[in-house]
Protein 1
Amino acid sequence: MRRIMVELSGESLELGYAEAVAAAETLGGQGLGPPLAGTTLATLELPEAGIPLLARRLALARRCLVEVTEGPVEELPAWRPDAEGSSAAFRWVGRPSSGGGDPSIHAAATAWKGAGGTIDLEAPAHRFWLARSGSSRVRLLEEVAAVDRPEVATRRISRLPFRRPIGLAPRLARAAANLAHVAPGDRVLDPFLGTGALLAEAALLGGRVSGIDQDAAMVQGALRNFVHLGVTAHELVVGDAGEVEFPGSAGPFDALLTDPPYGRASSTGGEASGSLLTRILPRWAARVRSSGYVVVVLPGGPDPLTDPWRRVLSVPVRVHRSLTREFRVYRRTPTAG
């Protein structure tokens, strides 16, 4: 197991940390601590081979790092790297434009060059990041994997062929899929398919996805988005999720992942949103395996699932102006014995 630090992007530190821990758990690791006050660095532990996989899974993070050294600022010039013939760049965490005029950056770079290395700010073989570790101490961290944030942005609703109604932003949809611990081969259900944003992220993580929507146009539109993104749906059904069945199978599913309809931009067929959720979600949650996850994105309100389900996480995130959504995670209460 390897201890690493993940630099969270800052869009929502709480959701970002929850996503990172869930992704690490899916890869056989665990979270060791949320970011300290005033920082964006979370500590995780996972198998060495899982580090590049973690970076490919995350959306609300920037990079994975390992600690090289830690100590007073004045000790950085004494750092003895194995730098012969290798290039590097040095920056402060959270300040990617910090340069050689900074005393700490200058000290670390001088030690690197003194060991036979070179500085290359464009395409270095090594990327090092400094982070405060007290008033006069710093951590020197090496980047071991980077999150491809521009790639996630290519999946924004404005770039997809089907755009109605407004869908969940891909970073948030990916975070939700990670909260559901989606692993390759997992069966994932969304009973309120919409534009398919959540199932697209689950499919990109290797899940076999199944969806339901009462509007045939939504199912057809979600299929267009899936084709555009290069993913495949396992089963899609048109109909009322409280009544329809999948022709192929009824379950079990490994996760239920959904962003139910609510608000003026969504259609519930005239049924109150709360009634819709309590009528449909328990039916499909019952088909999730005993150790599986239910992740629901809601505007607030009471829990749509009751015993044996318990809410284990709730993170509010402002997604647009005054609109806040809660990312809720539910798990079954363990049975005695």
Protein 2
Amino acid sequence: MLKRYGPLLLLVAAVVAVFASGAGRYLSLDSLKANEALLRGFVTSNLVLSLLAFVVVYAAATAVSIPGALFLTLAGGFLFGTWLGGSATVVGATIGAILVFAIVRTSLGASLRERAEASGGRLKAVMDGVRDGAFGYILTLRLIPLAPFWLVNVASALANAPLRAYALATLIGIMPATFIYSSVGAGIGQVLARGGEPNLKIIFEPYVIGPLVALGLLSLGTTLFQRLRARKGSGS
């Protein structure tokens, strides 16, 4: 029992501790601006170490669902530039998402899977359907940034999605939005210096959200078509 649920309890405890500590209040554009010289100096002198530290921090923040993931993405672009910062963010977020997925799937997911196998019926059918089309479903949810990131992590684990499909769909699906916000972060220093405010709602601009929704629907449509064809083939 402890072996199965121990990691989950530690994760929950970490989430509670982070929220209780109020760590999220330090993740702000004001603090970034106030420490710009110090941060840029450290990055310039220790680029590789800085990137590794950023990936670890982002992975940990993703794992405990700390408020401020958007700020960290902006900070990555601010400190490392659009492409390097965005790449580090994608790696960190994917690692953190896999960590949460693995913990939930081996605890609550295992229990739910055992119950589904024992009872059969609709629950088993739903879990089997999500498992078989996991890549397309998860990719759609990552491309269209409407569902909370942590919720997709937990739901995928409960549905027993294959780890490889989950990890690859997460890695690919978060890239567009990540690089968009990373590019905003890359220019944020000049915006703040002018006393302006960065456009943090850019992801919901029609020219941005439109292509993302189109890609998400294309992914979902392809998955549903493949599932339907497979079902017809097995029934014939």
Protein 3
Amino acid sequence: MMRDYEVETKNRITFIRDALSSANVDGIVYGNSGGKDSTLVGILCKKACANTVGLIMPCGSKRNYSEDKSDAEAVARQFEITMRVVDLTAVRGLLISAIDGVTSLTNMALSNMAPRLRMTAMYAVAASENRLVAGTGNRSEGYMGYFTKWGDGAYDFNPIADLTVTEIYEFLCFLKAPNSILTKAPSAGLFDGQTDENEMGVTYRNIDQFLLAGKVNEKDKTIIERYHNASGHKRRMPLVYGG
């Protein structure tokens, strides 16, 4: 059953305003990646708070400078969201050079650098301008653990964490987001040619069917459970010794 997205919009605006008020801040910063999730977060945040800034943060991948950047700019224009660009490609290169000789970086370690550098940049802006950092992860990614710990998994509040990818697209259609956002394959943009579904080996449609209705074939169920069980540490606070 489809949600009432007019009501959802009002409720999420209230949630965002309450988060700002309780933290005694007057602005928001988020990563405007040109993807579905960041688009929805940006629209909702701008509706809740005029002082919303979307950071476009290319970090090594060619698509960060082309398709992603142009889609991010289209969203910012349509919904009148302030846009800034922070190019992190050189910073990533310096970090790789600094670690050279200390260890041999794996592909996973290299992929996770970009989200963590973006988190650092967003918190630097937030701390300097009395803002909160808005998270952009959805329920489907959260369940699968398909996010970077202390990267895009780090934020002050998240207005879409309860929504599956299917619901994200429904919400974006309701809000009349640009067609380019609605039609391109979901991707974290971590490297050229990367798409979420190819990397996971299961479609968001099937993940969402499992989350919303408990329906899934055995092959996909095995993949979903493997991802979920292996990523439990990402969904909890760090373990501490309690005595």
